[in-house]
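Wed. Picked up where I left off yesterday with PAC2 family protein. The coffee machine is broken again, so keeping this brief.
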Amino acid sequence: MIELEGLPELVDPVLIAAFEGWNDAGEASSAVLAHLEAEWKATPLVELDPEDYYDFQVTRPIVEMGEGMTRSITWPTTRLLVARPPGAKRDVVLLRGIEPNMRWRTFCQEIVGLCHELGIELALLLGALLNDSPHTRPVPIVGSVSDPGLARVLNLELTKYEGPTGIIGVLQHTLGHAGLQTISLWASVPHYVAQPPNPKATLALLRRVEDLLDIPMPYGELPEEARAWETGVDELAAQDSEVAEYVKELEERKDAADLPEASGDAIAAEFERYLRRRDRGTDG
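Structure written out below (tokens, as returned):
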């Protein structure tokens, strides 16, 4: 277990976590963490020892060269960073990692210990999955919670998924049993454009995080990148009549499934987000 020394006292910290790998279709969720780390200039806290959790023949280290000599090696691991977002009254701990190859239970218990040391009582875990959602419609976000009452308070659409899980599912279960409130959010990435990046899904997750935590999120260039991404996919689909027909079928199926009141809720949520950001003087 890593002991944290010389750590500044954190104010009502919340954890936001995402992992590259199985849980990260289109790299949409890990991109949220990379974006927040850069925008908030997050300060490193600690990193887990990669020897304990990674098979380096499966998840290989990255070498950087300079003038024919090895300059550095970056090992696959999980890192914790901390930031105080502008306009927020609490600290945010970012947990950014790669899904471990082994010892998942020990890995999750180590995360629990770090959360206890840091005084974290709420964890928000982000993931992305491949789905048959059309790229032309708003990105569906579903979730799961450690407390059923929490879902009602947050007005969160709960997932009905049962089956194989990744580190997000195991970590949420472990954190919940350790007494932390946990929320997982999953963005649906169209399976016919699975390759990263997917800024539209990243932006959708970021906006949902903002809604849940009531912390202003820095959108940066993501709205423009999301529009450019959708336009690019439109152009590619238009070049293939079969793909265009398939997208149209998905759109019709999606529109038929969405209830009018659900669309009204989405419009109301978007308007409330706009008002909050206007009052704070933030963009987007």
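Quick read: The radius of gyration is 20 Å.
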